Predict the 3D structure of the following.
Amino acid sequence: KADEAAVIARAAWDDEKLYLGWEVRDATPWKNAASDPTQMYIGGDTVDFQLATDPAAPKDRKEDAAGDLRLSIGNFAGKPTAVLYRKVSAVKKPRVFSSGVVKAYAVDYVEVLTNVEIKVTLRDNSYVVEAAVPLAQLGLKPAANVPLRGDFGVTHGDAAGQRTRLRSYWSNQHTGIVDDAVFELKLEPANWGEISFQP
């Protein structure tokens, strides 16, 4: 959305893992003040991957479907930390989020992941995050010629690293809302782009 907040995202996969990478320009890189890892997305800098693992889910849906996920990675108390969110899930690890507009937004599955390999490289005015995520953790079975829909993005914090001030995504441009913990969490599948897994 701006040169000083430019992002490059990359992805690759093999039989066991999905490999994700983000290079992010940021004058105050990799700062996040969240006191709860599940709230890092509102607490400053994070990188983000969103995906519909079910290719049959309607492309223009306004609400989450089974198989939709969000993987958010941030700096929690000095440690790179990954959190997986599924609004709709047969497996339950529920969490309720609230904001000034929405008093109760229930998410079926929220988990801090311990089996994701994460490497963070800090630079003067940027940072790089590399993550290796087990496909089984995502419920993902990539297949050639079966495109899925998803998005890559980041959240940028203020200079003090206290609060998210910019949300920037590859495909979804409806990301102007900040200061609302629910609307910043919600997925917008209708605004996702197409991701093709090539062998």
